[in-house]
Each structure stands twice: as structure tokens, then as C-alpha cells.
Fold this protein.
Amino acid sequence: MDVEELTRFEQSQIGERQPLPDRYLGLSDDEMAERIARTRAELGERLLILGHHYQRDEVIRFADCTGDSFKLARQAAGRHDADYIVFCGVHFMAESADVLSAPRQQVILPDLAAGCSMADMAAADQLEVCWDELQALGATDVVPVTYINSAASIKAFCGERGGVVCTSGNAEPTLRWAWARGRQILFLPDQHLGRNTAYRMGVPLDEMVVWDPDLPYGGVEAEALRNARMILWKGHCSVHTRFTVPQVEHVRRSHPGARVIVHPECTWDVVQAADDCGSTEYIIDKVTGSPPGSTWAIGTEIHLVSRLAARLAPERTILTLDPIGCLCSTMFRVSPNHLLWVLDALRDGVIHNRIVVPEREKEWTRVALDRMLEIH
Ligand code: 13P
Ligand code: SF4
């Protein structure tokens, strides 16, 4: 994805994306690793590197802390000692870190083009229209819940209207929290996480509607809206929606006894066909804690799966559900070259690719994120 392809929102947030200087191209893996380690050591306690589980091996090996979105947000909120937080992940994660960290801390995303296509599926102006239309249709007791995979402007909107942010790690208690405060939930931007979580909590599919922001009044019938407990924004993850039921069936035939575990961004039918479902941290913990001799087929991003397979072999057999392997191309944007470049610059007192959430959005984004951190 090029900067030109980023959404209106991201362009306004990102500003100028500086190209990687030529001198950072064509370095050998060993040279890069050696230089990153050296610069990191020079920066010492002033630097905190956070790494999401989907990052490449050559990058995540330098992370001081790895985790899912929830765990990394907690780290950002709790580690006020470092001057710089280099976030090896995607844009919305770095934005959350900027809001949750102390004002004097600076958050850096090694490549500003590391966005998230799902987060781009909900823009603040679309949400405003949706909210007005819901009111016009009589849906006035709605709590907005946004997945952390969304822009800060969306989080701020939710915070200001009594809503909250959730992650795949705390989606169920968050929905409980929201239904204690309103009859209906507007869940965005991932319809699948919303549907899978609500269904698991006993809400039937016919009490959920999909709101298409590109259609007038979301394309939703007034009667269906009245009956709905969940209003699901029509967004999805292009990586996780690649997993299919035939893939689950295939693995059950080829590896009888294998357990299938998937991320809740997968479609409802895939989650139903799987044995278990949870955040990236949950998947890692569950598989790591399984008895030796277990076989697992995993439906999530390939870097997590490959790393787990290598770490747990030969005691456990770990397979990817998708034979081609699902890659998140925006997570992949963060290369060791970019990491070395931003670290070298920090050592020299120069900041590249800082993520700054505008002041006007910060307050309500923080409210929504603080509520998230309290729910688990
Ligand atoms: P986790 O919070 O489960 O790590 O998920 C983040 C994400 O973007 C999954 O696609
Ligand atoms: Fe976004 Fe999907 Fe990549 Fe996660 S895997 S960062 S939801 S595009």
C-alpha cells in the first residue's frame, strides 16, 4: 500500500512520509541485526520497543515487550520511564500508545505506511452520519463500541458518547459493559468480531443487523433495527476473512485429532467450524499450554503461526489453516531497515515518523481507552 492509497483520514494524520534513505537499503541481515542491537543498547532505558505478534522475526526479536493489542496498550500506559516508544505494529496501535503514554513520551512508527485496511473502513464523517440516521430511525439508546483497530477520531467519538474501545482480548466483557448502559450496541468497524462475540454470549443472529455506511440509513430496515441488539458496521479484516470452512474441513481430514483455533476476526461460519477462538495472545497461550503431542491448525497471520511452530517443535505440530499462509502486508511494512533508520536517528537526536494524535481528539480518545483498560 502506498501513501497515495491511504484513506482520507490517514493522510490527514500522517503528514509527510519520509522515504527510507538509500544507505539503509541493501544491508545484509547480519549487519542490520548487529547495528540495531548496538544502537538500541546506546539508547538504553530511554527507549521502549513494543512489538505486535504479527511482526517479522527480524523485527520482533528486538522488542522489549511483545503482545496483542490489549497487552501492548497496557504497556504503553504503564511504562512512563522511556523517552521514546518505538511501536513495531500498525498505525492505530501507535496512536493508542500516543494517547495512553505520558505527554513527554514520543511514539514512533518505523514506517508510516503501516496502516490497517480494517481501520480504514470507518471514517469519522461516516460515523457521524450513521449516528444521526440511527437517531432519526428511533435508535436512541445505543452505546457505541469501537474495536481498537480504528482511527483515534472514531475512538474519540465513542468516548464522547458514553462508549468504549475494545480489543479481541476483552470483547465479551466489553459488550456486557455496554449492554448494562444501553439497549443496543453500535459495533465498529469489524462486523465479524462483533457478531462472533455477541453470538457466543447468546445473541441470535436475527438480533443483529449490518450497517453499510455506503448506503442511505445503512441499508437497514426500520423493523430489523428496532429488534437488533447489535448494529454491526460493515467492515472486515482482509487477512482473516481469507480463512474458509473448507480449509477447516480439509485439516480435519488430513490431521484427525488436530484442534483448530482461529482469531475472532474470521467469519462466523469459520469460527463455528473451529474448536476455539481468541486474540493473538490467547492463541499463543492456549497452544503453548497444550499437552505435548498436540496438533493445532491456526487461523491467523502467518508470522505468528510460523514462529509458534518453530518454537514448539517437535513436541507439538503447528499448521496454518491456509496452505498459502495469510500475510498482513501492512504489518510487514515495518522492516528491520526502517527500525534501524529510526533508531539511528533517535540516537542522533532526530525524530522520524512520530505519531501524534491531535489535541482535540486526545481527551475523548483517552476516556474511551481508559475504559477499555478497566474492562477485562
Ligand atoms: P490482537 O489484538 O488479537 O493481537 O489482534 C490485532 C489485530 O490486528 C488482529 O488482526
Ligand atoms: Fe488490520 Fe487485519 Fe492486518 Fe490486523 S491482520 S492489522 S485487522 S489488516
The mean pLDDT is 95. The longest strand covers residues 47-52. The chain has 16 helices and 13 strands.
